[in-house]
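Whiteboard transcription, Tuesday session. T.W. wrote the structure tokens on the left side:
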């Protein structure tokens, strides 16, 4: 059987690929807070998770999801058995939907605002993996030194918040933060001891 994470990756790649050559499809899938609020197009809260701006955007998200999500999936399969797929679905799609809340309230009066991509959902998975495995060593692009998850996680949140306040990047940093916070809260919900372990390492 294919892993759940791999199924999500394959579906997202196939749907995003269709969007690369079909602008109407992409237009109908964008997350547009104004249209969600005034046109009741609630499907946009979900549909944007499966489309991406280009191959770079898609590749970065799906590679991160495949490796860290796959690693978390194997651990949850061992820990929770049949419940693991349910937890992963809630984590991924719950993170993706939660990541729209902050952008929604900030932009519900702005008909020009639109966003796309699974970054919020992927952020939820990444932070869940880091909280679940705080000693996990991760690499960042152009930095050939492994960084422990318990160090990288807070640094990443600070960077995203700084980038959000600075603005002008064209990246939905608020969605990244929202997804990350959902991932953290979800792990604490299913195993509060993970938070204690993480804080013990951090401080």
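and on the right, the sequence the group agreed on:
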């Amino acid at each position: 059987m294919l892993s759940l994470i791999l199924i999500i990756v394959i579906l997202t790649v196939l749907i995003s690929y269709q969007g690369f050559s079909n602008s109407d499809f992409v237009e109908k899938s964008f997350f547009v807070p104004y249209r969600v609020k005034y046109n009741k197009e609630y499907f946009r809260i979900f549909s944007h998770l499966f489309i991406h701006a280009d191959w770079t955007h898609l590749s970065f998200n799906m590679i991160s999801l495949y490796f860290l999500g796959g690693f978390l999936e194997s651990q949850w399969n061992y820990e929770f058995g049949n419940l693991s797929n349910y937890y992963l679905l809630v984590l991924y799609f719950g993170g993706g939907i939660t990541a729209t809340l902050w952008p929604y309230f900030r932009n519900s009066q702005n008909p020009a605002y639109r966003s796309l991509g699974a970054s919020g959902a992927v952020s939820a998975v990444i932070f869940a993996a880091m909280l679940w495995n705080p000693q996990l060593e991760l690499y960042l692009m152009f930095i050939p030194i492994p960084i422990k998850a318990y160090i990288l996680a807070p640094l990443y949140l600070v960077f995203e918040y700084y980038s959000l306040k600075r603005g002008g990047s064209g990246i939905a940093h608020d969605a990244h933060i929202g997804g990350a916070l959902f991932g953290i809260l979800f792990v604490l919900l299913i195993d509060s001891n993970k938070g204690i372990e993480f804080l013990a390492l951090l401080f």
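Someone added at the bottom: DSSP finds eleven helices and two strands in the chain.
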